[in-house]
Amino acid sequence: MLLSTAVLAMVCWTLASAVRGHGWAIAVMLSLVALAIWVLGQAMLFSVAALASAVFGATQRKTLRSPFANETPAPQILPTDHHVAD
Q1: CB-based contacts of 25: which residues, under 8 Å, 6+ apart?
Q2: What are phi and psi of 22, to 5 degrees?
Q3: Residue 28, C-beta contacts closer than 8 angstroms, at least 6 positions apart
């Protein structure tokens, strides 16, 4: 909680400096706005993809199985109890 308060205080101080016309503050704020737009865009694209997968992928969902599994178990090779005479 203290860390988020400190970060938001720095953002607000930078915003106040940008409003006063400091070039560095304007550049930092533009970068933060661009970063926020990018993150929101990524979240929106993920939400659209998840929704499309939930709607259209539900009818095409396949049961996951091992490609090596058969309907019957594999034959077992068990050692014999008797020894072969040499």
Answers
A1: 14, 15, 17, 18
A2: -70, 130
A3: 14, 18
Token output for 83: 């020894």
What is the token pair recorded at 25?
Answer: 């503050």
- Mean of pLDDT over the chain: 85
pLDDT of residue 4: 95
**How would residue 7 be classed by pLDDT, with cut points 50, 70 and 90?**
very high
> Can you tell me which residue has the tokens 């095409």?
60
Q: Report d(CA 12, CA 39) in Å as an integer.
A: 20
| 53-75 residue pLDDT tens | 888 876 656 677 776 766 776 67
pLDDT per residue as tens digits for the range 20-38: 999 999 999 999 999 999 9
Buried b vs exposed e over 15-34: b needs ≥16 C-beta within 10 Å? eebbeeeeeebbebbeeeee
